[in-house]
Specification:
The complex is a heterodimer.
Chain A lengths: L3 E2 L4 E5 L4 E7 L6 E7 L6 E7 L4 E3 L3 E6 L4 E6 L8 E8 L9 E2 L3 E6 L1
Parallel strand pairs in A: 2-11
Antiparallel strand pairs in A: 1-3, 3-8, 4-5, 4-9, 6-7, 7-8, 9-10, 9-11
Chain B lengths: L3 E4 L2 E4 L5 E7 L5 E7 L5 E7 L6 E2 L6 E5 L5 E5 L8 E8 L8 E2 L3 E5 L1
Parallel strand pairs in B: 2-11
Antiparallel strand pairs in B: 1-3, 3-8, 4-5, 4-9, 5-6, 7-8, 9-10, 9-11
Classes of the chains: A mainly beta, B mainly beta.
């Protein structure tokens, strides 16, 4: 399968601080990337996506940065809140199949300290 | 609009028993997926269905079978459960052939004794 890795398995931040979650991917053919949030006991929930023709995309309190040169993806969460505590996964589509399947990293657990 | 629903939410099986996990989506999506998630790991694709009438193996298909019953429903069957199949199973769906996100169900937590 595709290798999608994360630099840190856990991250703890103070409430109100900004969080940065990193992800490395290995397939240079990947041109679509997604960040998912998974709360305990729930299914993954879409946060934001980015295509390879962009290097930055912003959502509500979240920003995804893509550096294709070093095959690195990051998720920035502004003013982190207790409700942001969850496991965050990056996923990539290397277009290895006609179904545009996603390959997921192992996840980073974000803990927000009140 | 319920999104992606899965039944059951929890299940305990004995080794060798069989069962079917059900998944349905009401978003008129073409593609559907079954993943398993083991502790401390990401999601691994078991089987997928790119469109109604087609199914294909994913990364970890051994010990599983699937049926795309219609556009809405995609079931996963364990014919002879093994302890190694203890996991949380997620179903997902996606709209079409262009790049877009997958929507996930709440998961089924399966324990095989």
């Amino acid at each position: 399968g595709e290798s999608v890795g994360l630099h840190l398995p856990t991250l703890s931040v103070q409430e109100g601080d900004n969080s940065i979650i990193n992800c490395a991917y290995s397939n240079s053919a990947s041109d679509y990337f997604i960040w998912y949030k998974q709360e305990s006991g729930k299914g993954p929930q879409f946060i934001i996506d980015i295509r390879s023709n962009m290097d930055k995309r912003q959502g509500q309190r979240v920003t995804v940065l893509l550096n294709k040169t070093v095959k690195h993806l990051s998720l920035q969460i502004a003013a982190t809140q207790p409700g942001d505590s969850a496991v965050y996964f990056c996923a990539e589509n290397p277009h290895q199949t006609g179904a545009n399947n996603l390959f997921f990293g192992t996840g980073t657990r974000l803990t927000v300290i009140p | 609009n319920a999104g992606v629903t899965q039944t059951p939410k929890f299940q305990v099986l004995k080794t060798g028993q069989s069962m079917t996990l059900q998944c349905a989506q009401d978003m008129n999506h073409n593609s559907m997926y079954w993943y398993r998630q083991d502790p401390g790991m990401g999601l691994r694709l078991i089987y997928y269905s790119a469109s109604e009438g087609t199914t294909d193996k994913g990364e970890v298909p051994n010990g599983y079978n699937v049926s795309r019953l219609n556009k809405r429903e995609f079931s996963l069957r364990l014919e002879s459960a093994a302890p190694s199949q203890t996991s949380v199973y997620f179903c997902a769906s996606r709209a079409g052939t262009i790049d877009n996100e997958q929507f996930f169900g709440p998961g089924t937590r399966l324990t095989v004794l």
